Amino acid sequence: MDLAAIQTALRERQLDAWLFYDHHHRDPISYRVLGIPENLMVTRRWYYVIPAQGEPAKLVHRIEAGHLDSLPGPKAKYSSWQELFEGLRKLLAPYRRIAMQYSPNNLIFLLGMVDAGTVELVRSFGKEIVSSGDLVSRFEATWSEEQIASHFAARDKVDAITQAAFAEIGRRVANGGTDEYAIQQFIREGFRREGLTPGEDLPIVGVNANSGNPHYEPNAQRSSPIRRGDFVLLDIWAKLDRPEAVYYDITWCGVVGGSPTEKHQKVFEVVRDGRDAAIEKVKSAIAAGKKLCGWEVDDAARSHITQAGYGEYFVHRTGHSIGTTVHANGPNMDNLETKDEREIIPGVAFSIEPGVYLPEFGVRSEVNMLVRKGAAEVTGKIQRELVKI
Hints:
Blueprint: H1 3-12, E1 17-22, H2 28-34, E2 46-51, E3 57-61, E4 75-78, H3 81-92, E5 97-100, H4 116-124, E6 128-131, H5 133-140, H6 145-174, E7 178-179, H7 180-194, E8 196-197, E9 204-207, E10 225-226, E11 231-240, E12 248-255, H8 262-287, H9 294-307, E13 349-352, E14 355-357, E15 362-364, E16 367-372, E17 375-378, E18 387-388
Parallel strand pairs: 1-5, 3-4, 5-6, 12-18
Antiparallel strand pairs: 1-2, 2-3, 7-10, 8-11, 9-11, 11-12, 13-16, 14-15, 16-17
Helix pairs in contact: 6-7, 8-9
């Protein structure tokens, strides 16, 4: 935990304190920001308040009194619910505007860890609860230099595996045929060989109508054949298989043999140009030093695709935060599923991946962006034309 940096951030945002609270590991964000072990047996509620100035303080249950001993500050204990209420009231007495892992209307649901009853309790003490969203972005979702290096190392490996997968599709189709699951396993073997992990889920290989299902996943029991003339979507994400490495996450599309149809080409160009509009929105705002929120980036891509007549087929947000998990806790590029008003700050990374999903096929084009101070960059190759497999 970087106490000085947290307190500086609180003062910058005119917040009096940041209240952390958990039981039964319902708020993993708190453990990572505070740097406390995530394998504790937590059957009782604990509270930790960091003020904008001064010393932090703790409130813990007597039978789990040592859980926050690695953190600075005095400790108060409780057993009964009456002691808990009074102890929390005293803990928060000096503060008025308090940040918590709370999202108004639960719009940013990955952030909304605090239960409604605790919100009611804290408000009953006359406190104003403010979302910790921008604080979480700064202390949970920004990348270190070591993590940036891990991203680029994963990029080089994933880009090579992706191009090899397209080539393997062509080779197998020309020599008797293949299917989605076989290519997925080819990619997975590439991950093992290169020291990468995709996490719990496996890459998406979607052919024709299956590419129109944004979260389609083939398996041994459900796998369509891949033949000449088919439209193929590959969504591939992985990170180095080591602690604190961060993900690289891309989607490319191609056509097996010959040239794409007129409709394939048209929809790809609409998605590509919507992607580029979002990229330019990020680059220009960051270069100009303007405050930029995720919803504005979504609007840039969505307005282009809507004007082209495909808005109803763009059914998900434009992009998601990327970190040690492939969907991380920083700002998402979203004004559809949520209105993400979190600021895009230096050190955060995210995908830009608009898509158009028709009954017969779907197109998604995904790149990753990294924001640095005064500049933003696409971290990998950018698909400009459909791959001719």
